[in-house]
Amino acid sequence: MNAVDAFRLLGGERQFRFETPSNNGWPVAETAGTVVAEAITPDEADWTSLFALDGDTGGPRAVYRPTDTVFTAEGHDGAVYVGFGNGRLGVFSGR
Length: 95
Hints:
This protein has strands spanning 2-5, 17-20, 25-30, 34-40, 48-54, 60-64, 70-76, 79-84, 89-93. By secondary structure, the protein is mainly β. A four-stranded antiparallel beta sheet has the order 3-4-5-6, with no helix packed on it. It starts with a strand and ends with a strand.
């Protein structure tokens, strides 16, 4: 298993680790309430999976397995916006 070290939470010093289901995982974007991690999961998705994590506990909130490449991910105003290679936009929102 691989652990993703979360970004430092906004306004706080605490970090947490999230165990991804593969050997390749990394944090891609964060807000005060949500961290989104990406992991290579070829057995479960076309290529990667995105995991939305609770910013306070590090516990998983949702998983999304896109069929297209993750182009970019940015945290803004309480939500994480993810752009995909097919031109679609995904949104992970906190609380």
